[in-house]
Fold:
Amino acid sequence: MTALNPFLDRFFSNFNDEDLIRCTLVNSLWRKVALKILARRTEQKGNVKLYIRDSLVAIFTLTMSSLVVHLDLTEAVLPDYSSHHIIRHRLVTNDDFWNRFYRCIKNLQQLRIIELRSCPARILENLSRTHSLLRKIKSLNSIGPVMNIVHLMEFRNLQELHLQFDYRKGVIFIFDNQSNERLNNITNLALTGINNLYIPSILEVVNFDHLRALSLGSFSKFPQEFETILTNLKQLEKLRLEGLRHHTVITTFHAVATLENLKHLEMIDIDIPYGADEAIARCVNLTRLLISPNPENLSSFNNRTILCGIVKLYENLKRFEWVFARDSFSESWDDIIILGKLPYLDERGSIQIPSAMEENLIIFDQDALKTFIELFIPDCIVSIEKTTYAKSFCLQLQ
Structure:
């Protein structure tokens, strides 16, 4: 068996880290050779990034390695609450899986980045006790029903926090912060699918001063002072907001226009109140913009409002995506109707916005509307998308 070691070493050296992890399951010889290669790679590059996509078995071999600093399970095949899997000849349910997973990663004390999917909130809370040195936590489609956000205070080095809970069920955050301490190193914060998200409570836990990217999702309750909070985020470069209603839409655009470093804005499931065109037109600092109105705000008048605001961003806008989301999507839904006279270029090439009083209807298909917008902002990549309301929350501007 010893004579096989040089051959296995050369053969296994062609494998990536994840495949080497799988090799440790075969027998003691393969395990010994695979671990030796992993250790050698660690000495060369200082860490191991492990992306597990198609093997639950590989996850449970993590007890053998303290080398992993970056663990990505976002594309792994995981059990859900209505299914089970067979792992090592044993029936494993969702709760079994996550309990075993947590026991395994206790040994990964070099772990600094973790990316998960369908993870229960209790596991995220427990990570604060065993992996307080994590720098990045990303958890997609997380499962509630409750989470005590004060546990996050243990992550003193945390720089990126992305918590997305199941939009269908959401989660209830518990706030019982008795100290004056906050997370001061966060530069990237995303919180979505939270039933009782109240921004002043988040500010008690997270210091927003150093934020470069912020995403606040559906179920968020935006306070009246949100404009003031937003205008103070001077380092903010990327912003995504879901579910803005009524006058908060206007004040948010006004705040965005004051942030010189903010270049990327995504507005999902928003109302289009009167005056939104002028508010959008203020945001000349933006280079990338996605707008997806709430289905109840899809009207010919509101379509014109958005159009008249967008064409005024011709100086700097390089990427624009306009999403039409409905509760149910039909391929027969082709027409995009705009009420009132359209913007036009005068003989000097200046953009003119006629009065909206005339009630004439202009009908576009997606390609025609895209081409029309590009007449005003020719240096901008324009996309016109149609999708279901549920899928609109998954859209991101690339």
The radius of gyration is 25 Å. The longest strand covers residues 319-326.
